[in-house]
Design a protein that fits this description.
homodimer, three-stranded antiparallel sheet, DNA-binding
Chain lengths: ~110, ~110
DNA sequence: TTGTCATATGAACAATTGCTCATATGTTCA
DNA sequence: TGAACATATGAGCAATTGTTCATATGACAA
């Protein structure tokens, strides 16, 4: 007979958030799981930047950056403002910085 | 003439970590970017569990769980110990908890 | 050894994803 | 209005990824 997990399962189940929450958590981290997006967020760490400046910094296409900024914006990780033809992006809150900092800690522990 | 970014680019470049670090950061978060792995880490939040208990908890194949545990272990996010035929997995450090907690904060702010 | 339980692993397939290219939208200025 | 600049967007393609299935490894007991 395979061994029994009833006790631990009941205990853990009681502490697990709803499936939907865990799904949302995964979706959020998925966004951090791409080097280009990490670079963009890091670039915005101190100051806002326009799209073409980010593209130049990362040596990538304006289109590629724009696509990624859309993803970041949809997740509320960046915000933007328009000034004439130019659109400036910035981090939308401090969670971005703390999440990246925690990841960095894990890597360099 | 397109507008000039020299000043901001020089400033930001000075603050950017090496490409390799940013790549590693992305790779780390990529691991958090999957619901199954998030669930596994959450399940191990309080106590160690054996592979088949995790599989039963998540209602998934033993094989699928084993594959994911391998990924988590390679990233130093979980550790394991053997007790007879059974192998128990646990979180390997507290960064896992804090990273998940930060993500949770962002979602529920 | 043989059988059984617990776990690991490799190949294969479907689904997702990030970039490119072409083009569209929106703003400013002449 | 027309031209130029800044950004956004849709389709398509190559690469990555998570699961399944079959099977291998490892431990224990008879």
């Amino acid at each position: 007979m395979p061994h029994n997990h009833e006790a631990i399962l009941n205990h853990v189940k009681a502490d697990m958030p709803a499936d939907e929450v865990l799904q949302d958590l995964g979706d959020l981290f998925k966004i951090f799981g791409d080097t280009t997006r990490i670079k963009i967020m890091y670039a915005l760490h101190e100051d806002e930047m326009c799209v073409c400046a980010i593209a130049e910094l990362l040596n990538m296409t304006q289109s590629a950056i724009s696509h990624q900024l859309k993803v970041l914006k949809a997740a509320n990780l960046v915000a933007s403002r328009r000034d004439g033809k130019t659109i400036y992006y910035r981090l939308s809150d401090d969670h971005v910085k703390s999440i990246i900092a925690q990841g960095y800690d894990h890597l360099t522990e």
